[in-house]
Every structure is written in structure tokens, then in C-alpha cells.
């Protein structure tokens, strides 16, 4: 596991702020595209790095959280609280069945990591068929979480859950682990091209016609920009509120969760006022 006692840049706080800023830029570009047609595409490109940063932090949180149950509960509570605001932001209607907010995606990703680690502990010391069987069984919760994401139509769907899960695997203290982390992010950024290529192979046998990726699908390639902060990260937490001030410490921690629904609510209200 990475050492966290030595300050380094970027730290965890920097990643959180960068992810929140990228998300805000993306959502401004989405909601106000008709008012800022030239700036909106740029803002949405900036926003592509938000989800990989959040996914990476959840994977890190699975390793470093002192109380994983409370971590999961916080994600669940804010996912539920955010859902009506997400519907309002996305469609301007309440309720608005369809997509489910990204906190559910992150929660499912976290669950896949937690259960994978719980099950793989049983494989320690086991060799042969028994060890292989346990390790294969450890993948089942991740598959179930990916299926749940698709059934719930969560933001980023099974790809989002898979990204959290895969980010939790490499040992980034080694060059191979760093390279693997980069490869995982690049695959996620290229997912539309990969699925299109797979579809072309299938269509060559079935005779069906595949539409090439559009501009929005190609914009997802900019998700790889998140690596500019992920690769140099070495586990430093960054500045934090002293333990002697537990109320303020907890408020700062919850502020990052609350930012998700609150910024969408603010943007929705502003849009309603000016449209």
C-alpha cells in the first residue's frame, strides 16, 4: 500500500477539488448550452475528466476508509437525496424516470471492490482448484454490480462500475501498476470506439449496419486527461481540519458530498429564471 505520511502533489484534496470543478464546468456546459453555444463544448470537454477522478477516489477510499460501512452509507444517503434534484437538472421535470444519478454508480463500484476483497481473503493460502474457484467467485459481485447499474440506468452504467473496480486493483507503487492504471483510464476513455469496433466485427457476420461514433462519443476520449492528476498522486491527504475540531471536520467531509446535489439545484434554478 502507498505511503501517505509524506506530503506530495497532487494530494487527495486537490483531486477532490479538481473533480468538483470539472463536474461543475460540465454541468454548466450541459444546462446552458443554448446560451453559450461556443463555450459549452469546451466546458463539456473539461468535464470529461470528472468521473475518472471520482471513480479513482472511490477506489482509493475503499483502501483507506477507516469505516467502510459509514462510507457506503454516506454514498447511499446522498445518492437518494440527489435523485430528485438530478431528475430536475436533467429533464426539468419531477419525477423523471430514466437515468439514475452517478452516486449510485460510485456506490455500486465501491460495493464491488469491498466484496471482491472480502472473498479473496478466503483464497489466501489456498492453492490449486480451490484457490482458483474462490478468486473467480470474487469477481461475481462486480458482475452483479455492473448488471445492477445497467438495470437502474445509472450514469455511466456498467462502464462506471467497472472503472471503479479496475482502479482498485493495480499496485501503483510499481511502474507496472502505474502503467496499468493509465491503461485502465485510456480504455474507459476509448470505450465508445471499442464498442464500435466490436460491433463492426459482429456486423461482418450478421450483415447489420453500425453507425460510427458521433461527436459526443468522441468527446469521451478527453476522459483520459484525468491521468494528469491520477498518475502523480502518491496518497497524500493534503490539508485537513484538526481532529480537535470534529464538528468542522465532519462538515468539510460532508460538503464534498453535498456539492453534488446543491450545485445541480442551483444551476436548475438559475436556468428556470433566465430561460
Structural features, described:
The protein contains 13 helices and no strands. With 275 residues, the protein is mainly α. α3 packs across α8 and α4 runs parallel beside α13. The N terminus is likely disordered.
Compact summary:
With 275 residues, the chain is mainly α. It has helices spanning 12-31, 39-47, 50-64, 68-91, 102-120, 128-137, 140-152, 157-167, 175-189, 191-206, 215-219, 227-230, 246-274.
Keyword list:
275 residues; mainly alpha; disordered N terminus
Number of strands: 0
Helix share, percent: 55-70%
- Rg, rounded, reads 20 Å
Low-pLDDT stretches: 1-5
Distance between the termini: 51 Å
Q: What composes the largest sheet?
A: none
Average pLDDT score: 91
Computed structural class = mainly alpha
Secondary-structure element order, as H and E?
HHHHHHHHHHHHH
Fold topology:
Blueprint (H helix, E strand, L loop, with lengths): L11 H20 L7 H9 L2 H15 L3 H24 L10 H19 L7 H10 L2 H13 L4 H11 L7 H15 L1 H16 L8 H5 L7 H4 L15 H29 L1
Helix pairs in contact: 1-2, 1-3, 1-13, 3-5, 3-8, 4-5, 4-13, 5-7, 5-8, 7-8, 8-9
